[in-house]
């Protein structure tokens, strides 16, 4: 039988293990396959004493790292990640790590200490033979058959914009913003606190606000479920859509959140055996506004996309604008793609600082893929493994971790 027709599977030792390690979910599987075998949450095991009837099933969902990780947190992350990776090999993939090379899909902005920790776990504890780092934006772009494009990665902790030209990420023009899935979760908690209602037993209506201690006790996976099942991204609001503003005091100071008219229906989600949470339709639709309102410096996802295009050479801007690719779990929210395209076009057409880009507004196009945005980078890594292309292969005997943040200076940078 020819090598073209030979079936590759978990039994073919030339297939590599592909990991895409995020802050709250880890995707794992084998190269040459169209989707990851497993998507594992980064759960912390629940102590026996704290679990129901002394049993322990699953765990508490917690992010592996934060944007500003400390050395103490890095040690804690290592212990948790080590266990998750062991489970990935021995419980889910059912494979000996010593027999398979590994491809790791990495974000260009992933801090070097985290990359070093991941590599150290794989080399010293699991004893893999080699490790190849593949940039997630480039891997995702391969899944749509492109080598040039603007990749917008909207995950849990931050949104990053990576321009890629002819298969080379343009490192100097990368931008990021700490507005992503976690920001939506925090806004959703705030809006539910002020506008949600508590339904008990079989009540259909209630004027009782949700107790603050009850909201504080709800775990992250509860809010992730609410966000995935209820939230959507509405059209760009007009002045007539705003009802009024409510000022709240948070740990970051006072914050004014708007109340909107909305055609979205209200929904109810069960909290426990007796209690349910009623969420207004406009909260479901407008919790995501935090991504488009901007941060303290008035920078939103749309404006940093425009900033990246403005910094890129003029002769590649059109091609970048016509090939925008969305990846990351947050970009899967219903209506996100349409709203982001609308916001980018508005920024290019109406904001004075982007006058040079005004002609690009009508050319903005978000490309479609048959793969889910949250798995697109993993699929690209699988494709790279099948074609045996990618970055430098790092051996266990001489590990050398690539550092995107170490950029040359002066004349070398200009070249």
TrEMBL record:
SUPFAM superfamilies: Actin-like ATPase domain. Pfam families: Actin (PF00022). InterPro entries: Actin (IPR004000), ATPase_NBD (IPR043129). It comes from the Eukaryota. Belongs to the actin family. This is Uncharacterized protein.
């Amino acid at each position: 039988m020819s090598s073209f027709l030979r079936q590759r599977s978990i039994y073919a030792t030339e297939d590599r293990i592909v990991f895409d390690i995020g802050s709250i979910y880890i995707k794992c599987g084998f190269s040459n396959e169209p989707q990851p075998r497993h998507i594992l949450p980064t759960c912390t095991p629940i102590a026996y004493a704290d679990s129901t009837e002394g049993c322990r099933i699953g765990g508490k969902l917690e992010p592996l790292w934060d944007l500003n990780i400390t050395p103490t947190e890095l040690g804690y992350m290592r212990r948790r990640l080590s266990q998750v990776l062991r489970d990935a090999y021995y419980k889910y993939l059912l494979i000996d790590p010593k027999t398979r090379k590994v491809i790791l899909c990495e974000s260009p902005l992933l801090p070097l200490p985290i990359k070093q920790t991941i590599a150290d776990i794989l080399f010293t504890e699991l004893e893999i033979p080699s490790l190849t780092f593949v940039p997630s934006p480039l891997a995702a772009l391969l899944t749509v058959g492109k080598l040039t494009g603007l990749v917008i990665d909207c995950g849990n902790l931050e949104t990053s914009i990576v321009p890629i030209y002819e298969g080379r990420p343009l490192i100097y023009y990368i931008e990021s913003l700490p507005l992503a899935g976690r920001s939506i979760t925090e806004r959703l908690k705030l809006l539910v606190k002020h506008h949600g209602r508590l339904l008990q037993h079989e009540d259909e209506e209630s004027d009782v606000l949700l107790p603050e201690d009850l909201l504080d006790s709800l775990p992250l996976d509860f809010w992730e479920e609410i966000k995935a099942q209820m939230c959507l991204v509405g059209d760009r609001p007009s002045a007539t859509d705003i009802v009024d503003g409510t000022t709240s005091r948070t740990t970051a100071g006072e914050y004014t959140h708007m109340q909107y008219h909305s055609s979205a229906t209200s929904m109810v989600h069960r909290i426990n055996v007796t209690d349910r949470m009623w969420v207004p339709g406009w909260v479901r639709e407008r919790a995501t506004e935090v991504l488009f309102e901007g941060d303290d410096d008035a920078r939103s996802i749309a404006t940093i996309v425009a900033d990246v295009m403005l910094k890129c050479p003029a002769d590649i801007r059109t091609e970048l604008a016509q090939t925008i690719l969305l990846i990351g779990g947050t970009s899967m929210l219903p209506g996100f793609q349409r709203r982001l395209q609308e916001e980018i076009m508005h920024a290019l057409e109406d904001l004075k600082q982007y006058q040079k880009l005004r002609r690009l507004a009508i050319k903005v196009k978000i490309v479609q893929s048959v793969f889910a945005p949250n798995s697109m980078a993993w699929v690209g890594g699988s494709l790279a493994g099948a074609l045996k292309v990618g970055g430098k292969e790092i051996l266990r005997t001489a590990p050398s971790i690539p550092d995107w943040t170490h950029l040359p200076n002066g004349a070398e940078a200009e070249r």
